[in-house]
Model the fold of this input.
Amino acid sequence: MKERVLSGMQASGLLHLGNLIGALRNWVHLQDKFDCYFFIADWHALTTGYAITEMIKKSSEDLILNFLASGLDPKRCVIFQQSRVLQHAELHLLLSMITPLGWLERVPTYKEKKFELEDRDLNNYGFLGYPVLMSADILLYRAKYVPVGIDQEPHLEITREIARRFNHLYNTKTLIEPEALLTEFPKVIGVDGRKMSKTYDNALYLSDTPKLIETKIKTMKTDPARQRRTDKGDPNLSPVFELHKIFSSDEEREFVSNGCRSAEIGCIDCKKILIKNVINVLTPIWERREVLKSQGILGDILKEGNDKARITAEETMELVRVDMKLTL
Done:
């Protein structure tokens, strides 16, 4: 049997190029090598967006559409919605009973996210306890691997700690400690020069139109030294060139780099090449999105995935209930 992989994406906004390059493309490759479970994390979206839930439904629909349009195949992996598999909530509750408060307070992203979203009231258990829900998501499917970048590997440690504590307390081996499936996640720069993020509202979305993609890229800043067309610049100081490193060919990058340093090309010329390449990447996805919309099969695909996920999740919960002496 293939070893199992699990991963998910929060339904907290529309899917963007950073998600595609950093995770979704990798998922597409993994579905042929592993027993893969990929899910829409709509409950996770509530940990910071509990007061603005209108976006969750739209985001969930966008996620399933882009999952399929980008190449995930429901015949080769299980695609499901977290909130439709209630065993996630049950295991989350049970694990919350054994997780020390100090473990949650020391999670690196707790303070980072709180600072990043300082305009929201995040003094609630849901936000503090999101690592327990994340652990439940992973442990529920007894996943061997979770695909992450090397900088995210420490986030898995609390899941391993919770699994070890559960197994020790109840003298069992039910919960499997997941390993990181390390992958190279390139940092995708947003239109403002920071990391592309829904939070920063600086993203190129998979649902954007070609015209909107063009407009967004044209507004990007380049090397500040290039005030005039004849000024020479340094491509390494340009956020646009960071995107060229991902979306352009070696020959195009060399052309852009040399042209910037010698002032033989202007910033508009540089951006036109990037616009063409980004649109070339997105065009097949746009085309598949339209086909999927016309077929009206998204609900059926998600229902089938939810049913499969529920069976696997219940198998784990039956063992957990026995371990915790919760059965009569």
About this structure: The chain has two domains: 4-188+297-323, 210-289. The radius of gyration is 22 Å. The first strand starts at residue 4 and ends at 10.
